[in-house]
Amino acid sequence: MYAIVVHAALAFIAISTASPIAPRQNSSSSTSSSTVPPSNPEISQDLINQLELAADSVDRFTILQAQGPADTWLKYDFNPSANPNPGGGKGAGGQGDLANRKTFPALINLGVAASAGFMNPCGMNKPHIHPRATEFLILATGANVKTGFLLENGLQTQMSTTLSQYQGAILPQGSIHYEFNDNCEPAVFIAAFSNEDPGLSTVGKNFFSLDPDIVDADLGFPDFLDHTNIRQFAQSIPKSFSNGAMECLDRCHIKY
To answer: Where are the stretches annotated Disordered (predicted)?
Structure first.
C-alpha cells in the first residue's frame, strides 16, 4: 500500500511539472480568473466514526459513496488555497498540506498518508519527528533542497542529502529530520507516509514547552539561559515552516 502512494506521488509530480498547479474551481464560476477555489470538504466526527466502525472495506467505501460524487470524497486538493489551516503547518518559510485519516477519511484503514510541502525561497520545514511513520520525500519542483536526519542514540551523526528535481530521500520513522530550500526560488515536495496518521512533533518548539526547570537541567544549567525566561523564549519559536539559514537569506536578499 505504501508503494501505491509513492506511485501516486510520482504521477502528481509529472502532472505538476507539465503545467502550473491549477486550483480546483466550481463549474459555475470557472470563467472568472479571480475566483477563489473551495477548500477541501469539512469532515464531521460522525463520518469518521462510521468509517472506523465499518465491518470491512466494502462497507467503508459504501459509506463514502453515499456522501456524494467520488470527485469530492476520493480526491484531495493539495493546493495551498484549498488548505487554509494545513495539517503540516504554515509559517514564513511555506506550508505543508497533509492528507491523513482526519483530513481525508478515505485513507482510514489503508495505512498510508501524503503531504505536499510548498517552501518559499530559503524556507525550512523545521526539525520535526513523525512518531508513527517513515517518510519518502520527492522533490517535484526546485533545486538544492537539503534534507537531514538524526536516527537515534548510538548513531548521532546527521545523514544529509541534497535534492534536485525528481530526486527523493527517506526519512525514517521517529528520526529528527528537516527540509531546507537553500535556493532563491520556491520549491515543492511530495511526501508519502507509511501510516495514515503519521503524527508531527516539532522538536524545538516542543522541547522548550517543557517545564522550564527541566529544560534548564537538560541543557546543563547554562549561564546564558535564565530558567525564568525559558517559557517566554518558547513563545518566540516559530511553530512550523520558518526562514532557514541566514547565509541563504542574505544571498537572496530576504529580510529577517
So the answer is: 21-43, 75-96
